[in-house]
Amino acid sequence: MSSYHFWKYQVITHNPRHFLDVRKPTSSERDEIAEVFKKLPFLLGTNKWSLTGGLTIPASTGNILRCHGDIDIGVKVEDMEEVSGRILSKGYGLYTRVFMGHSSRKEKVDIYEAIDPKQARIKKNVRFVRIDDRHKIVRHGYLLDYMDVYLCEEQGEMIRCLEDGFTAPKEWHVGGMYQGQCPEQSFPLRDLQYIKAIKERIIARGKERRREKDVFDDETLKSLLGR
């Protein structure tokens, strides 16, 4: 992996660890997910955000059924500065990913631009990314190396994701809590109904966009929710 500055951008090349297919996690991968759940409230606080995406399923049920390659968090627009202020003091930067491509079959290229929390509302592909003491992005080889941020805003009784326009009942923004060993290790979770709706939306976009992990999660959620 390499990382370097080019004008106002940081360019990073790495071997992606997205698990688009489905396989059972190894013991070390299970330990890594458990470590993520332990550290998230330390990095982000115990409220003002909620875990979303595929990791919400094992966080809700306690069962890690497949490997996971990324962390997704949902944050209301009005809470973004507070959440950012906490994690930016713990070795992370706030970036928008302006380009994603491949330099070879196995090597991925991401180009990032640093942004201010106030800019996040009008940006796409917003991420908290781990940085070193020189503010250089570190390798993307560990789940906690970056987190995708999905900003949302309330619109009456609904909540709308600014990234893709997805709208859902606002009570789905927080549907439960991950229960850590103590209150300081607990954090909010998106309602599983929200995750199911997102997975169905991805699958419905077309066969070329179907990913095995989304189909697997959708079937898991149908079983959990009874439909």
How is this fold's topology laid out?
Elements: E1 2-6, E2 9-14, H1 27-44, E3 50-52, H2 56-61, E4 72-76, H3 80-87, E5 92-102, E6 108-114, E7 126-130, E8 146-155, E9 158-161, E10 167-169, E11 176-178, E12 187-189, H4 192-204, H5 212-225
Parallel strand pairs: 4-8
Antiparallel strand pairs: 1-2, 2-6, 3-4, 5-6, 5-7, 7-8, 8-9, 9-10, 11-12
Helix pairs in contact: 4-5
Quick rundown:
26% of the residues lie in helices and 29% in strands. It has helices at residues 27-44, 56-61, 80-87, 192-204, 212-225, and strands at residues 2-6, 9-14, 50-52, 72-76, 92-102, 108-114, 126-130, 146-155, 158-161, 167-169, 176-178, 187-189.
Tell me the name of the CATH class: Alpha Beta
Provide mean pLDDT, rounded. 91
Strand content: 25-35%
Helix content: 25-40%
State the end-to-end CA separation.
Answer: 43 Å
The second-level CATH architecture is 2-Layer Sandwich
The structural class is alpha+beta
The tally of structural domains comes to 1
Query: In DSSP terms, counting alpha (H) and pi (I) runs of 4 or more, how many helices?
Result: 5
Q: Look up the CATH topology.
A: Beta Polymerase, domain 2
Counting copies of identical and different chains, the oligomeric state is: single chain
